[in-house]
Amino acid sequence: MTKQTAARQLVRVSLMAVLIAACAWITVPIGPIPFTLQTFGVFCALCLLGGKYGTLAFAVYLAIGALGAPVFSGFSGGIGKLVGPTGGYLIGFLAAGLIYCAAEKLFGEKPLPEIASMLVGMFVCYAFGTAWFMVVAPSKPGLMTALGLCVFPYILPDIAKIVAAYFFAKMLKKRLKRF
Fold first, then answer.
1. What is the domain-level CATH number for residue 112?
2. Which site among 74, 103, 106, 127 is 20 to 30 Å from 95 CA-CA?
3. In terms of residue numbers, what domain contains 26?
4. Max Cα separation, the chain?
């Protein structure tokens, strides 16, 4: 990789981390997990940059947030957000990125495997986040309570955000050949 290519990739990863932060700030506070466009940002990053660099963009976003920058929902930041009740969902997005990366290596850039890997990644994120929520939340909710609060209300909107991110990223990629 040349220095120019490495610099471009660094800029792309940084721009996607900023996009994820901007999407996280668009919040509708319902229940313990706010409804945000963060899912859209994460999956746009994966579709635009590929699994490896898209996951790196999300890791950069998490690191910046952990250091205290207000990049999480509600303009919050800090390590407390990552270890708090909703932190498992944030960490779960890393697993979603790795799943996308694996599917990309196995199947290449094909629509069905890409969308399927994003859906599987989202459900892995739900599983990790819900287990985390059940352990860390002060009320120690049971599985059905946690799912009712943190997963069921978000399934359809998250599927819509995944599909929108896929088509938006593919359209944008065509328009920005040098991206």
1. 1.10.1760.20
2. 74
3. 3-175
4. 52
